[in-house]
Design goal:
Blueprint (H helix, E strand, L loop, with lengths): L1 E12 L10 E17 L2 E4 L8 H13 L5 E8 L9 H13 L5 H16 L5 H8 L2 E5 L5 E5 L2 E8 L7 H13 L3 H21 L2 H18 L4 H12 L4 E5 L6 E5 L3 H11 L2 E6 L1
Parallel strand pairs: 3-4
Antiparallel strand pairs: 1-2, 2-4, 2-5, 5-6, 7-9, 7-10, 8-9
Helix pairs in contact: 1-3, 2-3, 2-4, 3-4, 6-7
This protein binds (3R)-3-hydroxy-3-methyl-5-(phosphonooxy)pentanoic acid (PMV).
The site of (3R)-3-hydroxy-3-methyl-5-(phosphonooxy)pentanoic acid (PMV) has 17 residues, from α4.
């Protein structure tokens, strides 16, 4: 029996624009997927809560095992405390944890690359930022490529993660945005602006300039809303976080539901804001 474990993630700045080659700032979160794996005749995956394992996921896992040099089939049992369909990296963490269970001691870049097999099945054409954030842990500055560029970012911050109550797949906003981009000239400048905010946000995060970083969260949310990837429930969640005194708040991940994040002034403020909004407080980075 082997075990692999990986954390979920939040995108601090740069979701969607990262798909089009702009950089993103992302962080692992202290919520985990754990995989217990034993060799078996066939590939079998037990998902939490008795969810039926989709056949393409089994195929992707088998392909990942071949890439990892794991001979034969396996039986994998998953446990997770990452909310599903919320943009918090549950599928990327699944991929990274499975890669680690299949290949003990594999380096973060290799685990992220192996996990892309699962991401491609569940998300279509992912940028790769999710598995990179889950595999590298801490805070990263990510640009897609072959290989992708992953830089570690120093510093730390306290956030509140609040769920909008709507679960959805990444496809549901990424594919419609790709379509809108073909005919709507406003999309590309908005995507460039989001990339710029991620670049600035990296420096602000490293300097611990929380006030300006909070303003970047607000500006990114406004751009994401204009891109058409927010929804009424997310707007309410973001407003509640701001009303509670967040330095800034935005949707995180693909949008269309899922989660929002707020930047808190410190640990105590994060706890208070979480209690007020029904979210949970986390520390990201160092
Ligand atoms: O799967 P989510 O909700 O974490 O979204 C991933 C971030 C996107 O930029 C929207 C897609 C991608 O592949 O980068």
């Amino acid at each position: 029996m082997t075990q692999g474990r990986a954390p979920g993630k939040v995108i601090l700045l740069g979701e969607h624009s990262v798909v089009y080659g702009h950089p993103a700032l992302a962080a692992s979160i202290p919520r985990y997927v754990t995989v217990d794996l034993a060799p078996a005749a066939e590939v079998r995956i037990e998902l939490p809560g008795g969810i039926q394992t989709p056949f393409p996921l089994l195929e992707a896992a088998a392909a990942m095992a071949r890439d990892a040099g794991f001979a034969g089939g396996f039986h994998a049992v998953l446990r997770s405390d990452i909310p599903l369909g919320s943009g918090l990296g549950s599928s990327a963490a699944l991929g990274v944890a499975l890669a680690r269970a299949l290949k003990a001691g594999c380096a973060p870049a290799e685990a992220a690359s192996l996990a892309m097999r699962v991401e491609q099945v569940l998300h279509g054409a992912p940028s790769g930022v999710d598995p990179a954030a889950c595999a590298h842990e801490g805070v990263i500055f990510y640009t897609r490529g072959n290989p992708p560029a992953v830089e570690r970012v120093r510093g730390s911050a306290f956030l509140v993660v609040a769920l909008s109550g709507i679960a959805r797949g990444t496809h549901s906003t990424v594919l419609p945005l790709a379509e809108r981009r073909k005919s709507d000239p406003r999309m590309d400048p908005l995507l460039a602006r989001l990339g710029e905010l991620a670049r600035e946000g990296r420096d602000l995060f490293e300097r611990g300039d929380l006030v300006r970083l909070g303003a970047s969260f607000d500006a990114a949310h406004a751009a994401l809303r204009e891109l058409g990837v927010s929804c009424a429930e997310l707007e309410q969640t973001v407003s509640a976080l701001r009303a509670g005194g967040a330095l800034g708040a935005k949707l995180t991940g693909a949008g269309g539901g899922g989660a929002a994040i707020a930047l808190a002034r410190g640990e105590q403020h994060a706890r208070e804001l979480a209690a007020q909004t029904g979210g949970f407080a986390i520390k990201v980075g160092g």
